[in-house]
């Protein structure tokens, strides 16, 4: 393991994080908030530690796959710890602060607010609010990908880092250079975020709210500046948010292909499967809640469709914004939403979950197994868009699922000690490991994670990181062999 | 430049690495997903799995924006087809590796008719290099600049040589030779020579001089300038075939030892100065019988690296002065160097070097450009020839007043057929060809050597 290069990359991460702090700092200056001091202190700490790590130039700049993975995992942990400082300085318990920051960077959107000091989200300083939303934006596309777009970390092998940080079973470059690929991805991301911000402004959303909403949607995060999420805004704003949540959960490669005027390649199997799942889910839930309308809630047909579409988009994109308390809906609708949590967004997007492409591979593989039972000698290879999926990829996807289930069950077991009901526990774990945000019951759209013990919160923090970095980087950190010299 | 490489064998990989290091944007294509993945993981390039001779795959690799396509798969026909399609699909230059002697004899026709920029035959290129060394055996390696008027010669200082202990300065003051010492390799260190560098036994040094001055130099230092009259070649493959073709009229008599009787029979009718011996080179008795201890040169050209190396070591032990070893596959340079195997030839490296030389030469930049380029010491020191165009900042000042980066040497100036080995007072003029030797690998312009 090349510890020198890991140290150096961590140094760069912290310098970049110091740069990120400029966003809340400017906000604090504009709104003349006392929280300014806390951000300045956090920024100086980042700069100091970052510079310290960068002093010694590594003699060996080689990055193999293992270094790439460890760099990504450690970077996210370091970033979260330093990112939690401003919350902590402003009177939030440290574990809570860490939970909130990890929830931000991993684009989960689960929150521990309201606390005693801050009885509602609206009571938080604006600089803290924008820091939450901005952490979504940075975490969505990945910090290391951003760094790669700006400075050459170590020649050619950065792909290992990019692969570990970007979601999906296989990560491909768009163009030959990693640097250019990272720059292209961030450009698309940036332009789409600006587009949403401008459209939201056109819908007469206040500028501060629009900026926060755009950041949180782009990263498919879900932190909102209002306690009731997006519910208080006009239907226009809600529809815009629905559309952008879905747009940000589609593979960014598709947008690049569209730009290159290759619409056929852009609408690949994964995107099609994603859209079909979305449409089916919206229709099913819309009918379900329209038919049962009248008792606890009262929807017209239009409202049913809008609320259904919003909930489906917010869950499958793993954003987690709320407009309606879907916890009140019939069990059928809630079950669909829970299933969507697991499916998640497309690979290569900013969303979480298992990812549609993995589901496609798994389902195709399972169908092949069935065929092989009938014709044991038949030769079968899984292919997507007429391209064979390497056996290695299939194997990794299978064991990804196994690891995912094991971690899920272990987490469920640990947090069950807190004594909440099974629905709460199950959806709390699935909301964090899939980076969705809200679950059902106690942790529903109007609920909070505040009631859990610190141990459970640490488990959720681990789950969120596991979900965002797709399991293996975090597991690798826990493997003793990783830390051996050779 | 945007470069597409089809075929990820050894040559493809070397090219991908070097071209990428030079700052080109490289895309590789190969049928094997494993190979593509392996190389794309190592270097910052894009890998595409598929048949490089299909239009769709070339499109995916970005043939529309490509400046150059290099086809180096194992199949000649595929390489040619790749180039033809690339030529039609995009507006790019093409280079094909063609191994089959039947095609490569038609290289000029192929170049004209298919619009190829370069047709390269690795074995032929290697044979040419071996022939060059056999003709001038004092050298480990000879490269020529300015259409042969300047030679870059690399040789090892023998025991008891006159120049051991001398400094580079003294070559001029004591020997009165118009040569320029470029590099000194001692063990694993390689350095650009300066006036105060001294020579030691077993150093490998490279000099630049005109052919005449070089002869003069070797005479003055009593270096055995003995010409080679006979050579034993182990192995009768394609490379041997080419080598014999080239050396047919050189006056060197050749003895080929080949195991395969059928191959021997084919070979024996081809040339008049060549004897074919049917036997196993692993048989020490046979080698002794054929006079390995008395031959001037021994060339091992079998397809087995290990066999070649062992045979060469044996030949060196038996007192053969010039031993040339072919190594195809083995990558452990530092270990092989320690074996002190004299001259090592690798067809794949020769191919990669030639293509690299071509690519760098075509990367024209303002002012001047690389005409020819050689690796003097693998991956460390390069010699490059530039044509100086009017307006270059290097013109009009004595060399001693120009500010060079460290480890850069102006090794020769060519002006109207005249070779000038530059001294501090010489001035470079527009239209000169200048040969530089530098540790800064991948120069693209003469201005790159200035501070």
Quick synopsis:
The complex is a heterodimer of chains A (486) and B (451). Chain A is an all-alpha fold and 486 residues long. Chain A is 63% helix and 1% strand.
Describe what this molecule looks like in 3D.
The complex is a heterodimer of chains A (486) and B (451). With 486 residues, chain A is mainly alpha-helical. Chain A has helices at residues 3-20, 22-30, 36-54, 65-89, 94-105, 126-141, 143-150, 159-165, 178-202, 207-218, 235-248, 252-259, 263-266, 269-291, 301-316, 331-343, 356-374, 391-415, 422-433, 454-468, 472-477; strands at 383-384, 387-388. Chain A has a two-stranded antiparallel ribbon with strand order 1-2. With 451 residues, chain B is of the alpha/beta class. Chain B folds into four domains: 2-120, Rossmann fold, CATH 3.40.50; 127-220, Alpha-Beta Plaits; 230-320, NAD(P)-binding Rossmann-like Domain (Rossmann fold, 3-Layer(aba) Sandwich); 354-449, Alpha-Beta Plaits, CATH 3.30.70. In chain B, the strands form four sheets. A six-stranded parallel β-sheet of chain B has the order 3-2-1-4-5-6, with helices on both faces. A six-stranded parallel β-sheet of chain B has the order 14-13-12-15-16-17, with helices on both faces. In chain B, strand 15, helix 13 and strand 16 form a beta-alpha-beta unit. The longest helix of chain B has 16 residues, at 347-362. The interface between A and B is medium-sized, with 15 and 12 residues.
